[in-house]
Amino acid sequence: MVDIREMAAHAKLMFRGRVLSRTIDPSPDPGAPVSYRDGKRMPTALIATFAVDRTYLGAPRTRAAIHFISDFGLAMGHFCIEFQPDQYWLVFAVKGSDGSLELADDCIGALRISPQLGPKLENAAWPEQMEADFIAGIDDPKETMRIFSLQRLGGLGLPSSRPALHAVIDKHNGNEKGWAAYAALETGDMTVMPKVREILDLRGGGVLESDLALALRSIKDPAGVPELVKIASTSRDDLARHEALVGLLYNFHDPRSVPVFGQALYDSDSSIASIGLEGLGHTAKTPACRMPDTLPGADNHAAFARALAECKEWWERDGRHRTLN
Questions:
Q1: Which pLDDT score is estimated for 295?
Q2: What class has domain 4-26+40-112?
Q3: Distance of CA 182 to the CA centre of its chain
Q4: Whose CA is closest to 284, among 238, 241, 321, 240?
Q5: Which residues of the chain are modeled with pLDDT < 50?
Q6: CA 148, CA 110: separation in Å to the nearest integer?
Q7: What is the pLDDT of residue 322?
Q8: Which of 15, 86, 184, 225 allows an S-S link to 192, with CB 3.0 to 4.6 Å?
Q9: Class assignment of domain 189-318?
């Protein structure tokens, strides 16, 4: 999931449109990677030509040619974007050293979108116009495009999107409901937290559940604490419990999180146990629960085991019986 406003800060031109063609770059960068398929060398430097239907940032245009690298999935974390004819994309572009347009980021510098276009808003800033276009995509005939639209609203993160997202939550089930809840959470809407917890408890194990779990660590609104505590203490999803604990540890010092930090001390996952240890040290403010200084190898493991044992002893003797305000 891409923070659209952050990506926009790195772009000089931002537009949406349909890929008209994909051709080989006649003057590729000499440093372009080399790929082979079935023993045959394949071109990696390509040009995607777009019919632009909305310019959000930069001088308006009806056509754009984007130089990009296609490595057929060989470079992890780089050259991730594969433009194909008739697909619709939101593109974040910059000028290369030779003046041609290229992606602001080779992996998240373009995002798939629905062909549906919202009304042209007069005197609106680009985030509001983009929001209107994404909301139009919620009604796309294809489910995949509807889900793209929900994901993009989450990446935009505007509170004004909430009515449209709640309409999807109330109307749909399955993936669309889940992605609408995710998008609403990304706008800071804490009212969807019970639905988020329900989805995580289904243990679907897919991209939706993973992204929902990862979003928990970024919650900073105190209204989200009760649901974070529930997820951290009862969720059957290991990643969800871990991320809820991380959110409670780093974004709050709320006494309501103390019992779940104590519970985490006994988790078989050492990363969760370490959050419990650190969480009690920060929130209960007890010197008995302190992460050890970093030591090499086996020494560090032994130091952590001693610190964890000391914290458990304090928790059994005193911590679980304390009332914190």
A1: 60
A2: mainly beta
A3: 10
A4: 321
A5: none
A6: 13
A7: 72
A8: 184
A9: mainly alpha
What is the CB neighbour count within 10 angstroms for residue 221? 12
Q: Which two tokens stand for residue 168?
A: 């999807």
**Domain definitions of the chain by residue range:** 4-26+40-112, 118-188, 189-318
| pLDDT the model gives residue 76 | 62
Same fold for the pair 118-188 and 189-318: yes
Pairing of strands 63-69, 40-42: unpaired
The predicted model scores a pTM of: 0.88
